[in-house]
Amino acid sequence: MDQAEHPHIATIDFEEFYRPIFSTPTECKTFCERVESAPEAQRPVKVVFHQAARLTWLGDRINDIAKGRPALQILFYLITAETIAKLTYIFDGKGDSRKYVHAFFEKLCSNTDQETLAKAFRESPNGRPLGLQEAIDLLYDVRCDVAHRGMYYVFTLPLDEGGYPALVSLGDRTVETTLTLNKVREIVLRGAIRSCSMIMGDESIPPL
To answer: Exposure check for the chain: N or C terminus, fewer CB within 10 A?
Structure first.
């Protein structure tokens, strides 16, 4: 079979991959060119830019072989978030995965995306919003269920924006959500682009 039928991670067109995150093709092209020509002092920006795309691309492929198992893709998207945060904060130790996943969503993502996550999950049946930190913990717990216990078949998310809320059972509690997998993916990629902007000095990197 040809390459079109079996795309390879080494052939990712980064400009095309990130295009939906930008308002216009020109804006995307300009940003990509700026990243690729960044000076050595800003070397982490290229790593963030490339690794975020590669890891997300791998997560996207999961649906081809395990359709309807969003927990597997959540695993990859949260690994991407952790990787971006550790590269942005130049972390060279081991562990601290939960800490850096929180850092990604709480420090590197935009206020708008943080607000989306803060309202994404509600306890059932009382309807209490989990808030940002609890929502991040919930997604991280899904990641751990897959990575540590192989439980990729329990967690689910709505298929479409504006659809019926999904009831998600996690241990002894149930939460309701309208958050889609694609929305999680978009938040992670926007966070990657924002992290790149911070590394290039457009705005300060918030302290941990």
So the answer is: N
Per residue in 86-97, is it b (16+ CB within 10 Å) or e — as a string? bbbbebeeeeeb
Distance CA 121, CA 143 (A): 16
Task: Determine, yes or no, domain membership for 77.
Answer: yes
Residues in the chain: 208
Domain boundaries, position 65: 9-199
Instruction: Give backbone dihedrals phi and psi of 95, rounded to 5 degrees, phi first.
Output: 75, -155
Q: Is 37 among the domain residues? A: yes
Alpha-helix runs per DSSP H in 89-201? 97-103, 111-118, 131-149, 181-199
70-115 tens-digit pLDDT: 778 888 999 999 999 999 999 988 889 999 999 999 999 999 999 9
Strand order of the sheet with strand 173-177?
121-123, 173-177, 166-170
Task: Note the maximum CA span of the chain.
Answer: 53
Domain count, the chain: 1
DSSP classification of residue 93? S
Domain contains 2: no
